[in-house]
Give the backbone structure.
Amino acid sequence: MMLGWLALALLTFAALGLAAVRLAPSLRAGGRARDVLAALEHLEQGVSVVDAKMRLVAWNRQYQRFFDYPEGLLRVGRPVADVIRFNARRGKFGAGPGLDIERLVRRRIAFMQAGSAYRHQRTLRSGRVVEWHGRPLPRGGYVTSYSDITDFKRTEREAELAQRSRTQFLMAVSHDVLQPINAARLFASALHDEDKPEEQRHLAERINTSLRAAEELLDGLLDISRLNAGALKPALSDFDVQPMLHQLADQYGELALRAGLQLRLHARGPLYIRSDPRLLWRMLQNLLANALRYTHSGRILLCARPRGGEVALQVWDTGPGIPAHQLRWIYDEFHRYEQPLSRGGRGFGLGLSICRRFAMLLEHALDVRSEMHRGSVFSIRVPRVPAPWSGRAAMPLTPLPPASLQGLRVLCLDNDPHHLSGLQALLERWQASVLCATHLNDALALMRHEPDVLLVDYHLCDRLDGLNSLDVLRAATPGVRGALLSTDGGDALKHAARLRGYRVLAKPIKPASLRAFLSAQLRDQNLAP
């Protein structure tokens, strides 16, 4: 730590006391002198004092250690020029054929005799960084303190690198988040002027792809901000991973089909593991999204393979593969291995970085293997735990979602008419029966139609928020299922919703996630006696 002038003044006072002790041995018997000597000897800083005739009169052991002086070199009354010359010959002040040692000694002596205060930093040949503080004494002479600031300078350099990295990060974010939004605006403008249905569908798909890319980036940034703030704390629990894998297969299966790919699930179970379901879900989502982006033909395999005391959760793809020299960098933020014709545009280099940081947080091993022109496999190894005892019969495996949501009645409550219209259009396209309301009283009136599912926005600007509105609506029909739509995906809200039996769907809503949730409700309804 660097010394200020106040600290140097205190050292000067202590140095004068030490000089008195060294020059007058008879004073060493005094308790105060011994205290001064002991205090100076225990300082982390090195201290040296010369008198008006530029002779060494006092120093402490730390000063001797800093410069590795041999025994006998430092003695009271020795000209300080000898010490400076000794250091210069050892290269303490630089080296090379142009170094004039005697000129250097004269310049430093003249500087102290002139009574000039100074502060200077120098890196020693050992690699340590030392800071000098020099100040003249009131009655002639000079006191110099020496501080080892190696750790401070290292921390300072790391802070500068971190700041530079943050600056580059923000520049990359501002560019990358604007790119898909600008693309969506251009596609929307073209769609406005297009009258051919086939071209309209193509432009609409491009708009959807661009907005999905911006959404993925914002989701990644939110995860990173929570990680950097230390706001993400793992909540470990023991659970069967199979339902999670089936739900992921449902969510991404349709996207794969639309891309001309086959997504298969291989998981025999049940397989009980110990992890944080929420963070593990995000990791697997990122791996599946990455596989979909870079796989142009063939298939993607999501599987769970028992490996002794662990379960390997794997995502295989038949993509172009990753060169061996790129594998060490693929988990770095905003590092992207450029591949031609990636589906949905270039990735942002956040998904795999988030996977690695989640894996570190959960203490799960994250592996990758890849072969050029054949594909890649990403694996998350999680601890396997014994299945809990249960007297109930095992539930059958979850089937694939139905081709449509026909027969499902959905009540949507949102105070934003535009969002409500978009949600209604999407649900009707899936052949669901949709009831819409912008106020709680209107939604209560619609409960006479006995909806199967309630989709309620959290920020309603009504007399109740979405969570309490769900309670009121479900009181009228106790068996109805509910989901909360919210831009606030915080743990507190998710926990409160879960305690009341509701699912939280983050806005902007991912159609695949919404469809998987509704398909599960329809499936349960069809299985009910």
